[in-house]
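Input.
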Amino acid sequence: MTAPKYMIAHGSAAVQAARIIAAVAKEREDKARGYELAAQWHDKQEKACREIAGDDPRIDAPTREKAAFAAIHHGASAVGLRNAASALMRPATI
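Output.
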């Protein structure tokens, strides 16, 4: 079995590699920012659903129950999106 040979990139290859790495990092940041925006939307929906779920005199029980379940869903979605965003921003380990 032969040992693998590694070459160090110099000149334009090194510049190209640096650009690729920067582009991947930018893409990850953009995706994480998108996840955060979606999480903020879910936070807003969760708040609205909790208000509906707690509005006892004006809203009937089945609708309040649906709103309570929707609030749980939106809260969990926001947490999941933030978790995914933080995983994207963590340094890659090999």
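The longest helix spans residues 12-53.
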